[in-house]
Design the sequence.
């Protein structure tokens, strides 16, 4: 890294899924590329907040001037892995006016009456926006597969449909960043247990979380298939170790910063005469 | 105030529009109820951020459990008054997943083909959400009036329509807080001028801002009519002096905190057996 942070390697490189990637080989408790602990991680996150906000403002400004670029962050994870914390602590540093957040829960009857990509299309970011998908179309090949919510041939069809969808988005100007927060099974048990101990966290617990937990290995396998089938140059996956919340937040922030910097945007050139406007303003 | 902050009076009381209110009597450079300067104001804002975030999480939790309450913040102001800063620095401390932001710009042809409240209804907050209107239906009686964008009888009709709309929202569970950021004419000139001096702010300048500025007095009159006609117990107006950004942000944050505290919400009681779930989790 070119700055004086605690990153020794760029998480955009070190966490990106490459050919031959095996989820089962990844340590959920690691902090790859980061030379420091919680204190340094939180400092890094605080320092990156302004940088991310500035980059987002530039994207927004360019979008207003007709530049078609946008960014889409897709967040996937097992329950309690920290998606909410990423939204609060990473996304929260950007101007809400330029962020389009969409949470995808259990599909409604209206959503089920359409193709699985229908509700997703309605939420893709507009030019100038940073879109955030809290869960996504990947649920349709994760819980969809683990719980056999669709026939095998339909599940099989979806991987190709997802690739075609993401390619279309990318070609129309959206930089896609897909993040799986990779949590350990024991760490999840601790986090679920702590929700059951705190009156202000009981609402976050759902008995269905334990039901899904009983299918842990099947979910890991389903994620492996997702990485094998939907990793592409135009829509890369990043697997972020998530047992340490401070690490996951700092890493996702860096990945987003890198994606925004990669757009190479410049502040828009005004379509008005600056000196003329100064005179008008002065006389007003 | 019951805490040890620099507030000597509650901005929810001191800034709320009361019968007989005159906009022209209000000092845009004042900091009513606050005993301190920029440093204390920024400290107060930082301290309030966590409190606001906690209250919003509780509202969100209750919404998930079927509680129909929501909060709607309406932001109105002359250009450069600092709406964007309120959104970043006050709204930004809440979880974006529970915030519904809607910016209302120049109406599209589709919007113009409907009643003026049509596009507003589509953006009202759902149960558990904090909605933020960056401009709103009030534009239709502000620029609508100043620029004669509708016939006089239609403009006249709208005040009643707005009151009926807000009453309906309030009765269905939405706590409405309407804020006008009150900027001085000279301060606006300074802020517009500074946008013309900075390459990274030129995009924020629009020659139309100077056009509107030439109608300053008409806008102030139109706002006065708005306060006279649309101030109600269920949808109060707050006029916040906005020449000092730190003051406006701290004040709006306090007003929102008061509105959320006023809901008197408690953390939801779970509809599952906590001990049973602990056993299930333990065995998983």
Sequence:
């Amino acid at each position: 890294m070119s700055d004086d942070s605690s990153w020794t390697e760029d998480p955009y490189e070190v966490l990106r899924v490459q050919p031959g990637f095996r989820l089962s080989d990844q340590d959920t408790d690691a902090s790859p590329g980061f030379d420091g602990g919680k204190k340094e991680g939180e400092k890094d996150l605080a320092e990156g907040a302004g940088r991310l906000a500035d980059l987002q403002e530039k994207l927004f400004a360019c979008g207003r001037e007709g530049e078609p670029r946008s960014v889409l962050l897709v967040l996937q994870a097992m329950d309690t892995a920290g998606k909410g914390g990423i939204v609060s602590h990473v996304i929260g540093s950007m101007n809400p006016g330029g962020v389009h957040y969409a949470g995808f829960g259990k599909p409604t009857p209206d959503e089920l009456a359409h193709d699985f990509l229908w509700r997703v299309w309605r939420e893709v970011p507009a030019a100038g926006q940073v879109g955030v998908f809290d869960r996504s179309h990947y649920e349709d090949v994760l819980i969809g597969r683990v719980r056999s919510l669709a026939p095998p041939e339909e599940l099989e069809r979806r991987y190709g449909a997802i690739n075609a969808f993401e390619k279309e988005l990318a070609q129309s100007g959206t930089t896609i960043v897909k993040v799986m927060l990779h949590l350990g099974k024991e760490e999840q048990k601790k986090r679920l247990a702590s929700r059951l101990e705190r009156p202000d966290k009981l609402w976050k617990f759902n008995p269905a979380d334990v039901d899904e937990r009983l299918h842990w290995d099947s979910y890991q396998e389903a994620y492996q298939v997702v990485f094998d089938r939907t990793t592409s140059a135009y829509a890369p996956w990043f697997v972020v170790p998530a047992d340490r919340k401070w690490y996951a937040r700092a890493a996702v922030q860096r990945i987003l910063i890198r994606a925004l910097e990669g757009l190479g945007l410049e502040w828009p050139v005004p379509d008005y005469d600056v000196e003329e406007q100064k005179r008008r303003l002065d006389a007003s």
Remarks:
- Chain A touches chain B through 47 residues (CB under 8 Å).
- The two ends of chain A are 49 Å apart (CA to CA).
